[in-house]
Amino acid sequence: MGKNLMAAVLSENEFVIRSYQCTILRPLFMKPSIGFLSITNKRVVYHSESNKAGNANAIISEIPIYDVSGISTYIGRSFNFLGFLLFSAAIYFLTMFLSGFLPEFFTGWAFSIILLIPYGIGFLFEKNILNQDIKRKILENLENTPVENLVQNKDTGILMPILRVLFLIGASLLGYNFVKDPSFVGFVGFAVLIAIYLLVFEMLFGQKRSFGLKVNSKGSGSSGLYIRGGAFGQSRNPGEAITANPAVDAETIAAELGALVLDIQQMGDFAAQKWGKSEN
Fold first, then answer.
1. Neighbouring C-beta atoms of residue 276, cutoff 10 Å
2. Where are the domains of the chain?
């Protein structure tokens, strides 16, 4: 369990039963901030602190334990569709701009494929995807070439990232060539372009793990406790919680939070004996 960093003041005869490391934010060039979910004998409290651009921000969201009517959790991978659209548009117009003043060879089919080959071969050898016979035939054809040195050199930590960048550039150029080549029907060309841009986007940014939690309230006037993420979409109240990645106890929360809350509702303070009362 995460260390108890209860930010909210405890009321009379209130104590923490469990505290979990729930979410984690990793701001660029800043120390990660942890969001804690603390379960007391009276409340479910989410609390997190972060420091952005020198400003300290704190979030505390809570719901009375006896007001909880249901719990839903989500842990999975999210895809930033809007980010993908903006990325695709930026890459497309940048490629179109470069093709306007660079020599045709540097934006054409041949050059884009040349940029793809070194990293593609290095990746296949690095991941041991090919069997030994195919590897031997490839090495025979690449004898006395720079690519041969790449696939035979075990220390590729510096070279492979460079070739990866060239691969991404080549893939972007290749997709653009599918669109501008009149040999391909418009829909086919753009379908290939989107598929290639999706590959490039995944290689650069990947899919991020996300965590979502809904603690529903019995009362009609309360929205409960809400941590948005993944399938849970966007929060109706931006002040309720934050979008963050799952922390170390996220799976534990999904597995036992419902049972813990139900035991407290049914057993009261005696539930602390079963679940282990935390130090305040």
1. 9
2. 16-75+229-275, 81-204
Check if the beta carbon of residue 16 is closer than 8 Å to that of residue 39: yes
Structure tokens at 203: 């290689």
Strand order in the sheet with 245-246: 55-64, 43-52, 33-40, 16-25, 245-246
How far apart are the C-alpha atoms of 170 and 42, rounded to whole Å? 59
184-212 mean pLDDT: 84
pLDDT score of 139:
66
Between the CA atoms of 180, 185, 186 and 191, what dihedral angle is there, to the nearest 10 degrees? -100
pLDDT tens across 140-185, in order?
A: 776 666 555 655 555 555 677 888 889 999 999 999 988 888 777 6
User: What is the 3-class SS of the chain, one letter each residue?
Assistant: CCCCCCCCCCCCCCCEEEEEEEEEECCCCCCCEEEEEEEECCEEEEEEEEEECCEEEEEEEEEEHHHEEEEEEEEEEECCHHHHHHHHHHHHHHHHHHHHHCCHHHHCHHHHHHHHHHHHHHHHHHCCCCCHHHHHHHHHHCCCCHHHHHHHCCCCCCHHHHHHHHHHHHHHHHHHHHHHCCCCCHHHHHHHHHHHHHHHHHHHCCCEEEEEEEEEECCCCCCCEEECCHHHCCCCCCCCCCCCEECCCHHHHHHHHHHHHHHHHHHHHHHHHHHCCCCC
Spacing of C-alpha 118 from chain mean position = 28
Which of 92, 87, 105 is CA-nearest to residue 175? 92
User: Is there a contact between 107 and 95 (Cβ–Cβ < 8 Å)?
Assistant: yes
Residues 182, 146 contacting (CB under 8 angstroms) = no
pLDDT at 235: 42
